[in-house]
Design brief:
The complex is a heterodimer of chains A (289) and B (106).
Chain A lengths: L26 H20 L21 H8 L6 H13 L9 H5 L2 H4 L9 E3 L4 E3 L1 H12 L10 H12 L15 H12 L9 H5 L6 E2 L2 E2 L10 E3 L4 E3 L1 H11 L10 H13 L10 E2 L1
Parallel strand pairs in A: 5-7
Antiparallel strand pairs in A: 1-2, 3-4, 5-6
Chain B lengths: L3 E4 L3 E2 L4 E8 L21 E8 L2 E7 L9 E7 L4 E9 L3 E11 L1
Classes of the chains: A mainly alpha (289), B mainly beta (106).
Chain lengths: 289, 106
């Protein structure tokens, strides 16, 4: 059962509208986007929609549709605010932590070599848990199992920093989901979630990202919805955020109930999104409007 | 500690106009937002940015609540002599950060 998403912020807590919505960073545009999601739902109930996967050669990163200024920001490592988080991540990589008193670097050495291409193939199947895990969950497994330290909270500054630093080492690499049969049923779950209608607006992810990409939703160009830049710096957020934060945003826009961070449904969606974007170039840390 | 990224050419010709780019991590909390339980989030911003070139002030900016998080400030100057460019950001709650870079002018 899906509850009303209206009045809930992206963390699922009830929000009181600020006295000046236009002054609250991000708040105004979130309301606008929720309203425009609603208009689209109306349009989509009036036309028959056929969900078809995007042909490989027509796939494009949201980067291609960004304004020149946003592209310049992503392209210049001294102008991309995501790189500030990467610097924090690099410091964490070298910092000893937990009861074991070892740093990530003590076991993995130079991240530029050991972490190259790693994020490009996540999520992977973790036999000890008998389920797939994403890169954040892998980092937390190393925290708890290898360092005997407390796990980082999802979306915390430290988790974003370390995952940005690890994922930077895949920048420029093609997304390469592993050919692992154990992942197949989970990826199928992700595909089903992507194609199923949900929320009060009765929309599916595919209706926007497969069928209507390139069109406008109010001021936004509907992107194909690829996971190739995460964690990334979003101007609306005024901060770095994970792929799951993005997925929560879209679910709240659809007025569906967002899952908890780390939920198996999100990992399944990540698996499907990575497979759907296979071969596309990793841009972490990307910039998005 | 606030992270900062500075982009200044390592070398320049005397009299050349050079671009200086600075980026610093700061959430620039405007003081106008309402947090959980309807309580106002107090203002916390960078108020002043100053750049000195071999000790002489060459650029100063005052920042206000409407400036986005992680302020990116870029400006030009004329390369006059080899030496040091120093950058200083100060703001609410005793915020202070300093960075410096060297430049060779031939």
């Amino acid at each position: 059962m899906k509850r009303a998403g209206r009045g809930l912020n992206e963390h699922g807590t009830l929000v009181t509208p600020p006295p000046h919505p236009s002054l609250a960073s991000g708040g105004g545009s979130r309301l606008r986007l929720a309203a425009s999601f609603g208009c689209l739902a109306y349009v989509m109930t009036c036309f028959a929609i056929s969900a078809a996967e995007i042909p490989q050669n027509e796939r494009r990163s949201s980067y291609a549709d960004m304004a020149r200024d946003s592209k310049a920001m992503q392209d210049d490592d001294t102008a991309n605010p995501g790189m500030l988080s990467v610097l924090d991540g690099e410091a964490l990589w070298k910092a000893k932590a937990g009861a074991v008193g070892k740093a990530c670097a003590d076991c993995h050495g130079d991240a530029r070599a050991s972490m190259k291409g790693v994020s490009a193939r996540y999520p992977v199947f973790e036999p000890k848990l008998s389920r797939p895990i994403n890169i954040e969950q892998r980092i937390n497994l190393c925290r708890t199992e290898q360092q005997k330290a407390s796990p980082f909270a999802f979306e915390s500054k430290d988790m974003l920093a370390l995952s940005a630093y690890v994922s930077l080492q895949s920048r420029g690499q093609p997304i390469a989901p592993p050919d692992d049969q154990r992942l197949a049923p989970f990826r199928e779950t992700g595909r089903t979630l992507f194609n199923q209608r949900q929320g009060q607006l009765n929309l599916s992810c595919a209706q926007c990202h497969d069928d209507n990409w390139g069109k406008r939703l109010a001021a936004n160009i509907i992107p194909q919805g690829h996971p190739n830049g995460y964690p990334l710096y979003r101007l609306e957020w005024q901060s770095v955020g994970s792929l799951q934060r993005r997925l929560r945003n879209c679910m709240i826009g659809m007025r569906a109930e967002a899952y908890e961070y780390g939920a198996p449904e999100y990992v399944a969606m990540e698996l499907y999104l990575m497979w759907r974007a296979r071969g596309m170039t990793v841009e972490t840390p990307a910039v998005r409007p | 500690m606030a992270r900062a990224l500075i982009n200044v050419p390592a070398k320049a010709k005397r009299g050349e106009i050079i671009a200086i780019k600075t980026l610093i991590s700061h959430h620039m909390e405007s003081g106008f937002r309402v947090g959980p339980m309807g309580v106002m989030i107090p203002r916390d911003i960078i108020e002043t940015f100053v750049c000195t070139y071999n000790g002489e002030e060459i650029f100063r900016a005052s920042l206000y609540q409407a400036i986005a998080a992680n302020p990116f400030i870029t400006f030009n100057t004329v390369a006059i002599a080899s030496g040091t460019l120093e950058f200083k950001w100060t703001g609410d709650n005793g915020f202070s950060a300093t960075e410096s870079v060297n430049i060779i002018v031939e």
